[in-house]
Write a structure and sequence with these properties.
297 residues; alpha/beta; 2 domains; six-stranded mixed β-sheet; two-stranded parallel ribbon; globular
């Protein structure tokens, strides 16, 4: 028992026993801490601080067996105390990120949309996966592309191919992490055959789902990738060249249009203007007061 007490003291742990019924038995049990003549002779010699610690732990003032036994507590009590402490200091499940619904409510609403799926147009009949979107349900930025490609259709995730890798690098260049700081989705949730451009009827069918996603997440800014996304969101036929560099308004949410990463892979001449647009979007976030509140890097 003395060895047990010394271990508990050295590790700064409270005195507990597995079963509370053992406490009365231990109190009745005679002490076994009395020194034996052959005990010390079998111990290895201790040096320095270890010797001092062992000497101190063997003194009557540091180990009062009777008092320590009387203070024993069942381990169940310790576990219950730990749970209460954790509950009192834990963040409530409904913690709100910014204004509007809580993060828990946003996740639940997005999950409901995902489970419901979409079969509003013929594309649903030929898809492999429903590419709903991915990222933080409470993100301050929503990134919107055009439509899933072959790899996205296979994995059910947006921007996982070469264009997706480039997008990840583009976001990282302005200190945005795609898992924590943004939610990424497309106008279309199903891959068009041969990666052709989305048709007007398909965009019309898919747009309500995209708008509902934005409504649930409640972002502070939108980043639109390419002409198709910009035309769908703002019902315009303008090119990216005409729309880039401007701050547009989507129902009170500022939005900017940049070249699609796939376009940058096809035409290196777009890379410089795309970098300029990213820097301008970074300034927009700072102006909105959300940039400094993003995840610490």
């Amino acid at each position: 028992m003395g060895i047990y007490f010394r271990q508990q003291t050295e590790m700064a742990m409270p005195d507990v026993v597995i079963d509370g019924t053992l406490i009365p038995l231990l109190l009745k049990r005679p002490s076994t801490d009395a020194p034996r003549s052959d005990r010390s002779s079998r111990r290895l010699p201790l040096k320095g601080n270890a010797a001092a610690s062992a000497s101190a732990s063997n003194t009557p003032s540091s180990i009062d067996g009777k008092n320590r036994l009387s203070s024993l507590r069942p381990i169940g009590q310790l576990a219950a105390s730990a749970v209460k402490m954790r509950e009192s200091t834990a963040e409530p499940a409904g913690t709100t990120e910014g204004d509007g619904a809580s993060l828990t409510e946003k996740r639940a609403a997005l999950k409901e949309l995902l489970i419901k799926g979409c079969n509003r147009c013929p594309l649903a009949q030929h898809r492999r996966k429903f590419v709903f979107g991915a990222g933080n349900a409470g993100a301050p930025v929503v990134v919107i592309g055009e439509a899933p490609g072959r790899e996205e259709d296979e994995q059910g995730l947006p921007f996982v191919g070469a264009a997706g890798q480039l997008l990840t690098s583009m976001l990282a260049a302005i200190n945005l992490n795609r898992s924590d700081d943004v939610f990424i989705t497309n106008v279309l949730k199903c891959r068009p055959p041969g990666n052709r451009n989305p048709e007007t009827a398909e965009i019309t069918a898919c747009l309500p789902l995209l708008k509902r996603q934005i409504e649930i997440i409640g972002p502070r800014a939108l980043l639109l990738l390419g002409r198709i996304a910009a035309n769908a969101m703002f019902d315009t036929g303008d090119s990216v060249g005409k729309l880039r560099g401007k701050t547009l308004d989507y129902h009170g949410i500022p939005a900017m249009v940049i070249y699609h990463p796939a376009a940058l892979l096809r035409n290196a001449a777009y890379k410089r203007p795309a970098w300029e647009d990213l820097q301008q979007f970074q300034k927009l976030l700072s102006t909105l007061g959300v940039y400094g509140s993003l995840r610490k890097k």
